[in-house]
Hints:
Blueprint: H1 3-25, H2 32-57, H3 65-88, H4 92-117
Amino acid sequence: MWTPLALAIIIGSVGLGVWCLASGARGRYLNQPQYSGLLVLAAVVLVQSVVAAVRLVAGDRPSEVATFVGYLLTTALLMPTGVWLARMEPTRWGSVIAGSASLVVAILTLRCLQVWSR
């Protein structure tokens, strides 16, 4: 894990999650800037996953490798899945799906960071 990138993911995903959930609370579907933010977040999460995988292969490992890999795979797959599901649901619930996925990515990234630093 690269700590500055992980912190950027946490801050960005919380902000994006709150923004999407606020849209859902107002009864609105996602707009183009929100989709762009979700895609950027998904790309940054993918970059962080590649960095962590390279460090794992290079021998820099956390104490609980299986737990870390599980969190890492879930984090990498959740954001694209959340965006895909939000696109399939063109109602306010699409915003709720995207916002929830963003908030869960923040929590998963925090857990990855905690497992990595033990």
